[in-house]
Amino acid sequence: MRSCYILFIFVLCLLSPVSGAQGKVSQLTILLPPDQSVIESELVSIVIVTGGTLDAIRLSVNNSDLPSIEKINRNVCKVIKLEEGLNTITIKGFKKDEPAEEQKITLFYRPPLSENNSSAPDAFRPYKFHTRERESKCISCHDLGQRRANKEPQDISQSPCIRCHKKLLDFKFVHGPASVWECTTCHRSTVKGHKYSVSKPEQNLCYSCHSDAAVAWKDKKFLHGPFSMGICSVCHNPHASDNDFFLRKQTTDLCLSCHEEKATGVHVVSGVSGGGHPVRGKPDPLHPGKELSCASCHNPHAADFSELLFQNRNSGFEFCTACHKF
Ligand code: HEC
Ligand code: HEC
Ligand code: HEC
Ligand code: HEC
Ligand code: HEC
Ligand code: HEC
Ligand code: HEC
Ligand code: HEC
To answer: Does residue 302 have a pLDDT over 70?
Structure first.
C-alpha cells in the first residue's frame, strides 16, 4: 500500500511541467495549424497561445518577416498568406526586445491550379479546422454558434463567420452572396460530411442561382473536361478574386495551367517565330473591350462546335474571318 503511494507521488512528479531539469514553462505554443499540414487555400490562420509574459511576437514566412505584433494577449490569432509549396513559419517571442523563445512549423500550400505539380512530402496531412474538438479551443473568445450558423445575417457584422474569415474577401471583385456574408447559402452546416462542406456536385449549387447559365449550357454538344465533371471552383474562386469573373488566374494563364503545351507550341497557325497564334496582349475583335485570350476562340464551359470553338472552323473561312479581313 505504502509503496503504491510512493509510486503515485513519483508519477505525479514526472507529469508535473515544472519538475526536473527542464524547469521552464513554454511561453509560446502554436495551437493551429498542426505542423506538417497540407493547406489548400492561400490564407491560413495561425493561433498561438502564450504564457502571458511576452511583450511582442514576430512571425516570418520563409524568412520574410511580417510586422511585429505588440500588446500580446493570451491568444494571438493572425491570418497569413502562404507561398506555393513549402512554407516554414517561424514564430519568435520577445521580452523587452530580447528574443525569448522560438517555435517553427512547416506547411505545404497546394493551390487548386498548380503549375509545378509538386506534391507534399510524405508525412504531410490535409487539415480541416471545423471539428468539435478544435472549435472547443476557441469558443471562450469566438462565437462558433451552431444555432445561428444557418440563418443569414440581417446585418453583416452579425455574421458568425466574419471575425475569422474577413481576409477571404480582400480582393478587387467579391462574389454577390459572399459580399453580404451569406456564407451558409453554400456552406450549410447540415450538409453530410465535414461541417460546412458544400454539397456536390458543385454545379448544382452554382445553378441554384445561375439558372440562365445552366439553361444556356444544357444542350451543348461539346463539354469541356473539368466542366463536364461538375466542377466550377477549379477555375472560379467562389468568394473573391482580383480577376474578372472571379477567375483564379487571368484567363490565358488559367488555361495554360492545364494546357501548358499551348504556351509556346504551334497553335492554329505556325508563326514566323515558331510559336502559334497570339493569345494575349491585343484587343479581341470579337468581344469589344476585352483582351485577346484563349476564351476569344474557345468557350471555357461548353459549345456547339468541336474543340469548344465559337464557330465551326471547317466552314471555309468563316472562323478566321470573324476577326480577320485577309
Ligand atoms: C483569448 C481569446 C481568444 C481565443 C481563445 C481565440 N481567439 Fe481568435 N481572436 C481573438 C481576438 C481578440 C481577435 C482579434 C479581434 C477581432 O478581429 O475580432 C481574434 C481574431 C481571430 C482571427 C482573425 C485574425 C486576422 O488576422 O484577421 C482568427 C482567424 C481567429 N481569431 C481564429 C481563432 C481560432 C481558430 C481560435 C481557436 C483555435 C481562436 N481564434 C481562439 C481572441 C481569441
Ligand atoms: C474561430 C474562428 C472561426 C470562425 C468563427 C469560423 N471559422 Fe471557418 N475556419 C477557421 C479556421 C482557422 C479554418 C482553417 C483554415 C484557416 O486556417 O483559415 C477554417 C476553415 C473553414 C472552412 C474549410 C474547411 C475546414 O473546416 O477547415 C470552411 C468551409 C469554413 N471555415 C467556413 C466557415 C463558415 C461558413 C463560418 C461561419 C458560419 C466559419 N467558418 C466560422 C476559423 C473560423
Ligand atoms: C446565392 C446565389 C448564388 C450562388 C449560389 C452562386 N452565385 Fe455566382 N453570382 C451571384 C450573383 C448575385 C452574381 C452577380 C453579382 C456579382 O457579380 O457578384 C453572381 C456572379 C457570378 C459570376 C460573374 C458573372 C458575370 O457575368 O460577371 C460568376 C463567374 C459566378 N457568379 C460564378 C459562380 C459559381 C462558380 C458558383 C458556384 C460555386 C456561383 N456563382 C454560385 C449569385 C450566386
Ligand atoms: C457561392 C457559394 C459559396 C459562398 C457564398 C461561400 N463559399 Fe466558401 N466555398 C465554396 C466552395 C465551392 C468551396 C470549395 C469547397 C471544396 O471544394 O471543398 C469553398 C471553400 C471555402 C473555404 C476553404 C478554403 C478555400 O478558400 O477554398 C473556406 C474557408 C470558405 N469557403 C469560407 C467561406 C466563407 C467565410 C464564406 C462567406 C463569406 C463563404 N465561404 C461563402 C462556396 C461558397
Ligand atoms: C476551365 C475553367 C472553367 C470552369 C471549369 C468553369 N468556368 Fe465559368 N468561366 C471561365 C472563364 C475563363 C470565364 C470568362 C469567359 C470570358 O472571358 O468570356 C467564365 C465565365 C463564367 C460566367 C460568366 C459569363 C458566362 O459565360 O455566362 C459564369 C456565370 C460562369 N463562368 C459560371 C461557371 C459555372 C457555374 C461553372 C461550373 C458549372 C463554371 N463556370 C466552370 C472558366 C471556367
Ligand atoms: C483544371 C484543368 C483545366 C483547365 C484550367 C482548362 N482545361 Fe481545357 N481541358 C482540360 C481537360 C481535362 C480536357 C480534356 C482533355 C482530353 O480529352 O484530352 C480539356 C480539353 C480542352 C479542349 C479540347 C476540347 C475538345 O473538344 O477536343 C480545349 C479546346 C480546351 N480544353 C480549352 C481550354 C481553355 C480555352 C481553357 C481556359 C479557359 C482551359 N481549357 C482550361 C482541363 C483543363
Ligand atoms: C484564334 C483562335 C484561337 C485561340 C486564341 C486559341 N485557340 Fe485553341 N484552338 C483553335 C482552333 C481553330 C483549334 C482547332 C485545332 C487547330 O486548328 O489547331 C484549337 C484547338 C485547341 C485544343 C484542342 C486540340 C489541341 O491542339 O490540343 C486545345 C486544348 C486548345 N485549342 C487550347 C487553347 C488554349 C489553352 C489557348 C490559349 C493559350 C488557345 N487554345 C487559344 C483556336 C484558338
Ligand atoms: C477571336 C478573333 C480571332 C480569330 C477567330 C482568329 N484570329 Fe488571328 N489574330 C487575332 C488577333 C487579335 C491577332 C493580332 C493582330 C495584331 O497583331 O494586331 C491575330 C493575329 C494573327 C496572325 C498574325 C500572327 C503573328 O504572329 O503576328 C495570323 C497569321 C492569324 N492571326 C491567323 C489566323 C487564322 C488562320 C485564323 C483562323 C484559323 C485566325 N487567325 C483566327 C484574332 C483572331
So the answer is: yes
The one-letter code for the residue type at 190 is T
Whether ligand 5 lies within 6 angstroms of the CB of 232 is answered as yes
**Inter-residue contact 224 to 259 (CB < 8 Å):** no
What CATH number is associated with residue 30?
Answer: 2.60.40.10
C-alpha cell at 177: 452572396
Per-residue confidence (pLDDT) for residue 13, from 0 to 100:
42
Q: Which residues contact 286 (CB under 8 A, 6 or more apart)?
A: 296, 310, 322, 323
Confirm whether 305 is domain-assigned: no
Closest residue by CA, ligand 8 atom 37: 320
Find the 289 Cα to ligand 4 centroid distance in Å. 31
Q: Does ligand 2 lie within 6 Å of residue 81's CB atom?
A: no
Number of compact structural domains in the chain: 1
- Cα–Cα distance, 75 to 30 (Å, whole number): 10
The CB of 198 under 6 Å from ligand 2? The reply is no
- pLDDT, position 148: 57
315 vs 130 pLDDT, higher one: 130
Query: Distances from the Cα of 204 to the Cαs of 187, 208, 211, 231, in angstroms?
Result: 13, 6, 10, 10
Residue 278 lies in a domain: no
Ligand 1 atom 42: residue of nearest CA: 141
Does any domain span residue 32?
Answer: yes
The ligand 3 atom at the shortest distance from the C-alpha of residue 235 is: 35
* Ligand 7: nearest atom to the Cα of 319: 12
The grid coordinates of residue 151 equal: 440563418
- Residue 113's Cβ-count burial label (10 Å; 0-12, 13-18, 19+) is middle
Residue nearest to atom 20 of ligand 2 (CA): 129
Q: Is residue 180 part of a domain?
A: no
Domain assignment of residue 71, given as a range = 25-127
CB 88 within 8 A of CB 62: yes
Give tens-digit pLDDT for 138-155. Answer: 999 998 865 555 566 677
